[in-house]
């Protein structure tokens, strides 16, 4: 075995370990993003809700593929290396498609969320809108926002200067939340910030892992060709 072949084999081994670590990273990101987006389930379209599930599938697939690659390179099994290259290429394409999908859907998701907020805020604390009321309370208290654009959005709903208690960081002794004690940022602004942050995480994670996987596919193909030549020599 030449030095180049030897180095190629163990570089491929290291890249398979990296793919294994990457899969764990993708699974972790999927769980984190799913936890963040779940709170907004009544305000965002199903396309974004399913994105973490897609990441989860990619992470599990990459985990299985990296194990196949490790077995192939450690035991010098040509067909496993070929299977590794094919499956990894499929995952790579899937990651790039997911990145493009998230980027493309950004504007539509913002518009959908804004429409849902405008539709549900008027039904706050009313019969038939219990799920939306719970979502508004959860979001406002959790990410420290109030109304769609600010506390003033609640005036047409409550017909007074009183706000939902989830709008305030401190409730006065009389039990009523007012503009003085409320969060000043609107929830739509916070939503845009969270959406932008999560979209960037998904896009750059997918692109970064795709580049790593592309190099791993190249090394696997080189190792497969090297094994084929060794068998012919023997």
Query: Total strand count, please?
Result: 0
- Decide which structural class fits the backbone: mainly alpha
User: What does the radius of gyration come to?
Assistant: 25 Å
The total of helices stands at 7
Largest sheet report: none
Distance between the termini: 12 Å
Q: Quote the average pLDDT.
A: 76
Summarize the structure.
It is built from 7 helices and no strands. The chain is mainly alpha-helical.
Key features?
74% helix, single chain, 234 residues, mainly alpha
What does this protein look like?
The chain has 234 residues and is an all-alpha fold. Helices cover 74% and strands 0% of the residues. It has seven helices and no strands. Helix 1 runs antiparallel to helix 7. The protein is elongated, with a radius of gyration of 25 Å. The two termini are 12 Å apart. The model has no long low-confidence stretch (mean pLDDT 76).
């Amino acid at each position: 075995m030449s030095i180049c072949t030897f180095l190629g084999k163990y570089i491929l081994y290291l890249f398979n370990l990296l793919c294994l670590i990457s899969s764990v990273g993708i699974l972790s990101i999927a769980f984190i993003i799913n936890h963040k987006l779940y709170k907004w389930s009544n305000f965002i379209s199903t396309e974004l809700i399913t994105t973490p599930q897609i990441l989860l599938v990619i992470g599990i697939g990459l985990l299985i593929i990296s194990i196949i690659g490790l077995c192939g390179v450690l035991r010098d099994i040509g067909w496993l290396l070929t299977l590794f290259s094919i499956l990894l290429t499929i995952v790579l394409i899937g990651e790039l498609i997911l990145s493009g999908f998230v980027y493309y859907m950004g504007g539509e998701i913002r518009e959908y969320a804004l429409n849902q907020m405008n539709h549900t805020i008027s039904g706050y604390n009313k019969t038939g809108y219990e799920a939306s009321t719970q979502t508004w309370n959860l979001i406002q208290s959790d990410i420290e926002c109030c109304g769609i654009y600010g506390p003033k959005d609640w005036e047409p709903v409550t017909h007074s200067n009183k706000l939902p208690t989830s709008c305030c960081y401190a409730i006065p002794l009389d039990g009523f939340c007012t503009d003085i004690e409320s969060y000043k940022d609107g929830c739509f602004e916070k939503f845009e910030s969270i959406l932008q942050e999560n979209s960037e995480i998904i896009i750059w994670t997918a692109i970064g892992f795709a580049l790593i996987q592309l190099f791993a596919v190249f090394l696997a193909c080189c190792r497969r060709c090297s094994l084929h030549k060794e068998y012919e020599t023997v």
